[in-house]
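Before the break, one more example. Copy the sequence into your notebook; we will annotate it together after we see the structure.
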Amino acid sequence: MDRLQHRLHAGLLRTSAPNWRQLRHSPHLHQGSLDGASAVYAVATALVVLGVTTKRDVKDMRFSGSGLLEKMWSKALELFFAGADKQELLALLETVGSYLTYEIKLGSTSRVASAVALHIASGDLAIVGLDLTTGLGHWVLAVGIEELVVNRKRTAIGILCLDPSEPTPLLAQFNSRIELDADVGGGQLGYRSADGVMRCVTCNVAWLLAARRSARKS
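Here is what the structure looks like once it is written out:
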């Protein structure tokens, strides 16, 4: 029998920890409509999902003068309202390099999307750069994949994401989807947001992330 299967990062379902009792039990951090800081939100959410820090600590990082997020907060202040390209996102990741490993993937949309899907299937995360047809760039956190399973053969048909600019998910653990099974032409993919609207995007850059074993919180 053919079936669809979602494979999501285990860190999305960390409901047993007391500090996880946040809005809708999600690590999602919601971006303001004017700040242009999707890179900052994507990195911060990744740190929570990977178990490096907590959502509460992320929300309090602007008040604390020390700790693992101090350097990240200082760099984040430079990017608010300005946005971040791939080099600026690298500078942000370097502030938490003691806790994360990261590797950049560049190339065509199909090549980058395939690399992200393989990395997510291995149980890690990726920050994906989306370029909209309007010319605007945006970063989202890829947290899982949707697969079509036919006779034990798995085919990735969607990359499941937490988008900082979309509402915190209510039922699912993701709020947007990169459509790998929709041919929109022109080297583009479909990107479906929480309201069901699909836009055409290219994604020529992604950062593949994983937590260093020594950095995970107990």
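The two ends are 40 Å apart (CA to CA). The longest strand covers residues 137-150. Try to locate both features in your own notes.
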